[in-house]
Amino acid sequence: MSLEHIKVIVFDLDGTLYEDTHHFDFYAERLKFRLSADKQHLFSKDYLSCKEHRHPLKTGRVYDAEEGLILVHMDGVVREAYRWNGEQISREKASEIYNEPINYDFKRFFSIGDPWWIPASIARHYGLSSERIYEAFLETRKFMLGPDFKMKKIPGLAEAIKAVRKKTDIVLYTNSSEEDSEGILTKLGLDGLFSLKIFNGKKPAKTVEWFTYIRDYFQVSFEEIMSVGDNWVNEIRPVKPLGCITAYIDAYDTGETAYTDFAVPTMRELLPVFKLISES
Ligand SMILES: [Mg+2]
């Protein structure tokens, strides 16, 4: 694949420009604290079992809060469904319940595109409302922006972006708010590197709309845009059919390599690709 035609690189923020994960434990604690006392130990047990990959709730799947089922799907078409205890329900029963493609509304269907949605789905399973889940998320964000949360910079990333931005425009496209994103970029020493920043980006619903905006903003074609992210549903699946080059950081080993030009376990493995682009 030739890379010299790439003119714009679009980066996701969380899980892409940093790899820290210890805030998920903080988030899980804040969620647990909001559950009734009789549910708290069940929450902890399930969260631990997810962390040890013993639970059917996994990155890449969808949690159906109404049916209490965990779904394996492709583009919303349900292929397998599991009960909370890991038992698979029959294909007949699954196709009876899901006779048309599901869409992720984050009310009934929680797309577990990245690890934020694991503790959130467990909390939902034990009855916590979306509003209360959001409160716990805001507390976690506040913690992340505070002095006690030390973020590890990805070695070589800032240098690689600085080198590649001589050849391409660099865009941030995130579902996070401006305040949270700017705070995190400052902590990472990545502020000031982006030609354009899009916050509250409503991925995946608005991914195509925003990529069209980016294409028009920089007067390029989709083929000249590269999308980099750790959420296959948000950053890879919607833009590949447009013609974009895609780089998927599959930190949780979802194995979703369809539509991906590059699949790597960590951002570090992508740095040589940016080097190639900057030297092309
Ligand atoms: Mg992400």
- Overall radius of gyration: 19 Å
> How many individual helices?
10
Integer average pLDDT: 94
Low-confidence stretches: none
Q: What letter string, H or E per element, gives the SSE order? A: EHHEEEHEHHHEHEHEHEEH
Q: What is the structural class?
A: alpha/beta
As for the number of domains, it is 2
CATH class annotation of the largest domain:
Alpha Beta
Distance between the terminal alpha carbons, to the nearest Å? 12 Å
What is the topology, as strand order, of the major beta sheet? Answer: 7-6-1-8-9-10
What is the level-2 CATH architecture name of the largest domain? 3-Layer(aba) Sandwich
In CATH terms, what is the fold-level topology of the largest domain? Answer: Rossmann fold
C-alpha geometry: globular
How would you describe this structure to a colleague?
The structure is a single chain. By secondary structure, the chain is of the alpha/beta class. It folds into two domains: 8-20 and 152-279, Rossmann fold; 22-145, no CATH class. Helices cover 37% and strands 15% of the residues. The chain is built from ten helices and ten strands. The protein has helices at residues 22-33, 37-51, 91-97, 117-125, 130-145, 157-164, 178-188, 207-218, 232-236, 271-279; strands at 8-11, 62-64, 69-74, 77-82, 109-111, 169-173, 196-198, 225-229, 245-249, 262-264. The strands form two sheets. Strands 7-6-1-8-9-10 form a six-stranded parallel beta sheet. A four-stranded antiparallel beta sheet has the order 4-3-2-5, covered by helices on one side. A hairpin with a 2-residue loop joins β3 and β4 (77-82). α1 (22-33) packs across α5 (130-145) and α6 packs parallel to α10 (271-279). The longest helix is centred in the middle third of the chain and has 16 residues, at 130-145. The radius of gyration is 19 Å and the shape is globular. It starts with 7 loop residues before the first strand and ends with a helix. It binds magnesium ion. The site of magnesium ion (MG) has 8 residues, from loops. Residues 12, 14-16, 114, 229-231 line the site of magnesium ion.
